[in-house]
Amino acid sequence: MALLEAVMDCGFGNWQDVANQMCTKTKEECEKHYMKHFINNPLFASTLLNLKQAEEAKTTDTAIPFHSVDDPPRPTFDSLLSRDMAGYMPARADFIEEFDNYAEWDLRDIDFVEDDSDILHALKMAVVDIYHSRLKERQRRKKIIRDHGLINLRKFQLMERRYPKEVQDLYETMRRFARIVGPVEHDKFIESHALEFELRREIKRLQEYRTAGITNFCSARTYDHLKKTREEERLKRTMLSEVLQYIQDSSACQQWLRRQADIDSGLSPSIPMASNSGRRSAPPLNLTGLPGTEKLNEKEKELCQMVRLVPGAYLEYKSALLNECNKQGGLRLAQARALIKIDVNKTRKIYDFLIREGYITKA
């Protein structure tokens, strides 16, 4: 034991210092004894060989070994890909900001000196133990990230998207358990559920065939073709009924014609952009009990109901437009929109109404 401690203190090969620390042996004796019993000992060699063979036999019949993902890219600092990889530096196998990044700060003022009391020494050791536990947690998290291939996040997300939506939801739910079961077991679990989902969907399709009285796959292909045709016809009727509700609206008719042309050409029907003319009109505003209603005449009440504008706001807008018209000697629509910060279509209706009723004049 004294020889081993001396080699640890002085370093392997520094036999003169080892002999000086031993005090009872020469450097040749120390080297000869160490090489004979700790380096060239056949007992150690056979023991190591047996341990290696036992380890290989242990892993022979186990699961397929998990291979990590490809070497991740090395993006430049603060680039978009670097942020996607959470600042991972592949050359160092570290992150720019580690988990519990400031754990070392608790040790910066600790210094072990000989005159420390037992309580103070125990307290410092407890702080060091806490720091070690935080380092273990950091390493555990990094190991999970590496084992499951989470560093290259984009590639991981692309792998997730190959599953159906139902399996993706399960993947998202079961992700929290991946750190417990390991990467191989977790992937096997997800793959088995994806297979189960495919089998259930196929069974449901076969049951639909059986309910329809189909007994062979030739009839099943005919059934699928007719079903697709019926769905397309139903889609056409639905779009036609929508257009008939706005038959007076030319833009709605043009949108329907474009969608119909897409369907006839084999493309998916394009979704039309929402427009004011294509929306269902909201019901008129009920002015009963609203403040300022008694100050409106019948035409102004009708305008507020159709535009869905409360009387108090209408009176304020009207007063502002009248004052500006008196100052300028006339008022343009652009000036009215600059004064009234509301929907431009409502502003136009108010402006046209005031022009038509003679409250203001057009510049």
UniProtKB/TrEMBL annotation:
InterPro entries referenced in this protein's UniProt entry, alphabetically: Ada2/TADA2, Homeodomain-like_sf, SANT/Myb, SANT_dom, SWIRM, TADA2A_B-like_dom, WH-like_DNA-bd_sf
Protein name per its UniProtKB record: Transcriptional adapter
The alphabetical list of record keywords is: Nucleus, Transcription, Transcription regulation
Compartment annotation? Nucleus
Q: What does this protein do?
A: Component of the ATAC complex, a complex with histone acetyltransferase activity on histones H3 and H4. Required for the function of some acidic activation domains, which activate transcription from a distant site. Binds double-stranded DNA. Binds dinucleosomes, probably at the linker region between neighboring nucleosomes. Plays a role in chromatin remodeling. May promote TP53/p53 'Lys-321' acetylation, leading to reduced TP53 stability and transcriptional activity. May also promote XRCC6 acetylation thus facilitating cell apoptosis in response to DNA damage.
The record's Gene Ontology cellular component field reads: ATAC complex; nucleus
SANT domain: residues covered: 1-42
**What's the main place this protein lives?**
nucleus
| Biological processes annotated in GO | chromatin remodeling; regulation of transcription by RNA polymerase II
The chain positions of domain SWIRM read 276-363
Q: Which stretches of sequence are listed as region Disordered? A: 268-292
Could you give a GO molecular-function term held by this entry?
Answer: transcription coactivator activity
State which gene encodes it. Answer: LOC111151671
Q: Tell me what organism the protein belongs to.
A: Enhydra lutris kenyoni (northern sea otter)
Q: Which CDD domains match?
A: SANT
